[in-house]
Description:
Number of strands: 15
Largest sheet: 4 strands, antiparallel
Helix content: under 10%
Order of helices and strands: HEEEEEEEEEEEEEEE
Amino acid sequence: MRLIIATFLALSISFGSHAFSGPGKENPIVTLEKVGDAKFQLKYLAKPSGDVTVNIKDEKNHIVYRDVISSEKLFFKNYDLKKLGFGSFQFEIVENESGRHEDFKVNVTPPQSKSNYHVNKRILDQRSIALLVSNLDETEKTIRIFDKGEKIHEENFSGKNFGKRFTFENLVNLKNITIEIKDVDGFSKFISAR
């Protein structure tokens, strides 16, 4: 179980940090990295030849924020876009004297809700699995089981814990089985049976 949690944590950290740079550039001078739900870090990795202007534009191409940075060395600058709301934004970075110009498109989306349940799965044999769900908020959840994307079982449960053995008579093995657990708020988690 600890290995599964550590793996999910490592994946969420690796997917949570996105670096943006110009297309096809191996050693970009300017990068933009997502460092939080609506937070981005601009990295200027060379000495600018003059002021650097950062324009943040909304979906209608209107400038919603402007920042002029005077620096004689490389710099990092953080931007928090949560006050601008959700949507698509464009970072336009212009070095005034050299005319160097970079654009980055980003999306600010609502933070993902956190799971209010934990799942433990055990393979019993080539056709059977045991599933134990700790229902942290004790609200109703739905379990749906799919074979090659086709729903073959659906069941609702509530209470603190749910445990059940599932045996699939018409399967050769469990490799095409996927289990979805969904709460009333729409948060769902898919689990491979293998």
